[in-house]
Write a structure and sequence with these properties.
Length: 64
């Protein structure tokens, strides 16, 4: 048990930004229950191709 009386707060970082209307909470028998719905699609991930071997460097054209 964290506290027997008084007030306190707790913060939790989530790996996504929830919509405020997608959060529900209820208090039952001394326990606060939070339900945070995850968004349908998170578009923060990016795929980067990985090449093997030395990098290919294009040489500038030689002047005549």
């Amino acid at each position: 048990m964290e506290r027997r009386y008084g007030s306190f707060y707790r913060s939790v970082q989530l790996p996504f930004e929830p919509a405020t209307d997608a959060i529900t909470a209820h208090y039952e028998k001394g326990v606060l229950h939070l339900i945070v719905q995850k968004p349908a699609k998170v578009t923060t991930a990016k795929t980067i191709p990985v090449m093997t071997g030395p990098p290919k460097v294009e040489e500038p054209p030689k002047p005549h």
